[in-house]
Amino acid sequence: MRKSFYIIIFIISIAFLTSCVSETTSDSDKTDNSHNGDLSLRQTLVDVSSDTQIIDLKLKLETNPDDPEANYNLAMRYFELKRFDLANDVFAKAIELDLSNATYKLAAANSYADDNKISEAEALFKEILDDDENNTDALNSWGVMYYKQGIVFKDEEKLNTAEEKYNQVLEIDPENIKALFNLGLLYIYRKENEKAKEKFIKVNQLEPDRMTAIKHLASISLQADDWDSCREYSLKGMEIKEEPEFVYYLARVAYEKKEYKKAEELFEKFLGMGYLGPWEVDARARLFELKGI
C-alpha cells in the first residue's frame, strides 16, 4: 500500500505541475512592516489622475504649497498606490519643510527601499537613528529592507544584517511584535525551524489572535512530526477563522494517528474549500489511498 501511495503522489504531482504554477509566497510570509514592496518585480504604474484623495490634497497644496503635513499625506497616498516615482519627491519636500520629523523620514526611507533605492533609504535610516538610537521602527524597517534584498538576491550577508537589526530592536524592546515575527520568517527561510518556533510562540503569547503566527506554528509542528502540537495550534486557529490550511493540518494529524475515517472527512472538506497550493496534491493522494483502505 505504501508503494502505491508514493506512485499516486508522483502521478498527481506531475499532473498538477503541468496544469498550473504553484504559489511561491502567501500573505503569511510577508514581513511585518508598514510596507510590502517587492524588490524582485517592478510595479506597473498606476494612473493617479482620478484618485480623489490626491486631487483634494493637490488642491490644498495649491493654496499652501509649504504645508508639510499636506505634502506628507500626498506622498503617503502615492506610496500606498506604489507610485514610488512620485512619492519620493513629495516625501523629500515634506522633510525639507520639517527637518526634525522622524515620521516623514521613516516613510520616505520605506518608499526608497520599496523602489530599490537602497543607498537613499540607508541614508535616511541612519539619519533617524543618529537622532534617536532607540527608534525601533527605523531598525525594523531597515531590517525588512535587508531581509527582502537577501531573499531576492540570495545574499546571506544581507540576511545576517537583517537579523542584526531585528535583534537590536529586541535588545531595546524584548516584546516587539514586528521584530519577533520577522525573525521567525527569517529563520523559516533558513530552515532553522526551532529558532522560528521560539519567535512565533512569543508572538502568540503576546498576541494570541495573530493568525499568521498560529499558521506558522502549526506548519512547523507538522514538519517536525509533532502531531499533538500541530492539532493544538490548528484547532486554535480554527477558533479564530476556518482556514483551509488548518483543515489540512488536522486531516494530516488524523491520518498519522490512524484515525482514518476522520482523516477522510477532513481531506474531503479541505479539497472542497477551493484551496490551490502546495498541500492540494498531497491531500488528493492521501484521500485516494484512504478510500482504498
Secondary structure blueprint with pairings:
Layout: H1 2-19, H2 52-63, H3 68-80, H4 84-97, H5 102-114, H6 118-131, H7 136-153, H8 156-172, H9 177-189, H10 193-206, H11 211-223, H12 227-240, H13 244-256, H14 260-271, H15 280-292
Q: Rough shape?
A: elongated
- Which band does the percent of strand residues land in? under 5%
Number of helices: 15
Proportion of residues in helical segments? over 70%
Q: Care to count the β-strands?
A: 0
| The CATH fourth-level homologous superfamily of the domain at 208-293 | Tetratricopeptide repeat domain
Q: Point out poorly predicted stretches.
A: 9-28, 34-42
CATH class of the domain at 208-293: Mainly Alpha
What is the correct CATH architecture of the domain at 208-293? Alpha Horseshoe
What structural category arises from helix and sheet content?
Answer: mainly alpha
Sketch the major β-sheet.
Answer: none
Q: From the alpha-carbon coordinates, what is the Rg to the nearest angstrom?
A: 23 Å
- Please name the CATH topology of the domain at 208-293: Serine Threonine Protein Phosphatase 5, Tetratricopeptide repeat
Distance between the termini: 9 Å
Helix and strand string, N-terminal first?
A: HHHHHHHHHHHHHHH
Mean pLDDT score: 90
